[in-house]
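User: Before I run my own analysis I want an independent prediction to cross-check against. Here's the chain; please return only the structure tokens and, at the end, one sentence I can use as a sanity check.
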Amino acid sequence: MDTSALDVGLLVLRVGVGLPFALHGCQKLFGWFGGGRPRGTAAFFASLGFGDGRAAALLAGVGELAGGVGLALGLLTPLPAAAIAGTMTTAAFVNNAQSGFWSVAKGWELNGYLIVVATAVAVAGPGALSLDAALDLPGRLGLSLDGALGAGVVAVGVLGGWLRWVTRARPGG
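Assistant: Structure tokens:
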């Protein structure tokens, strides 16, 4: 396997974003690293109009854990990228949309960066230092797991995140 600086750069990007993202899922699902566990996370989502919050907490936790691990490993890369983009789309609305763009004002800036990173990796592909490459998943599946397919899958993730937000019951309404 020939590796280039681009492959190493993609590995650093995937692991550097994917691992912390997965750890956020562990906060929600297991209470690790000061997280709320499912009960605390569900209560937070319930306060935002996501029913009793349990489904939203589970979706967010699993999306973050599976998306982060999948991105870090470069495994079926467009799917974890879509999970990250979808989760961050909902998070941008949940936490930050009303505050504008800049994170210094509690805006959606960081959420936007993570959506861009997920999209870029899905479009570029995970590189040679990935499970997709090691297992020859594109060849086995008869697909290109990057380019237009990657962008399309991430777009579906963003749409799903937005739909999850707009279909919630409004607090106090």
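Sanity check: The longest helix spans residues 5-30.
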